[in-house]
Design brief:
This protein is an all-alpha fold. It is 77% helix and 0% strand. The radius of gyration is 22 Å and the shape is flat.
Length: 142
């Protein structure tokens, strides 16, 4: 009972205490995260350029990866924090809505294929796993 009361009282009073103390998020964490992601993606683009010179892998692979990383860099550069505050997002709401709809269609399609026995349960689970990761990335970017 003591544990339950302690958890409930603390859990319910914490939001009130935060408002009362006027604790405000200054957006520093989001800015650091954006800058770190930007640097990491730029480093990946540079490394891909180095690897491409070796001619060890097909050019098409580099082109696909370069487009993906350059798109990420553009998104990160576009969501530069404004002076007005930390209200920046990695993904626009329109983009997120379209991506969510596309993922829903993919899910319905793979379930339909499994029900028709065009794919087995193992294939279904692997594809669902990839779709779950895509949804998680989408949610994180909001």
């Amino acid at each position: 009972m003591v544990i339950l009361v302690t958890l409930v009282i603390q859990g319910l009073s914490l939001p009130w205490l935060i408002r009362r103390l006027k604790v405000v998020d200054n957006g520093e964490t989001e800015k650091e995260e954006r800058e770190a992601r930007l640097k990491a993606n730029l480093a990946a683009v540079a490394r891909l350029a180095e690897l491409e010179e070796d001619k060890k892998y097909p050019t098409e692979l580099f082109q696909r990866l370069r487009v993906e990383y350059e798109d990420r860099v553009r998104q990160l550069e576009a969501c530069e924090p404004s002076e007005s505050g930390p209200n920046h997002r990695l993904i626009s709401s329109d983009y997120a809505h379209l991506q969510e709809e596309a993922l829903r269609v993919e899910r319905r399609t793979i379930l339909h294929l499994r029900n028709e026995r065009a794919i087995n349960d193992n294939s279904l689970r692997r594809i669902q796993h990839d779709l779950d990761l895509a949804e998680a990335r989408l949610e994180h970017g909001k």
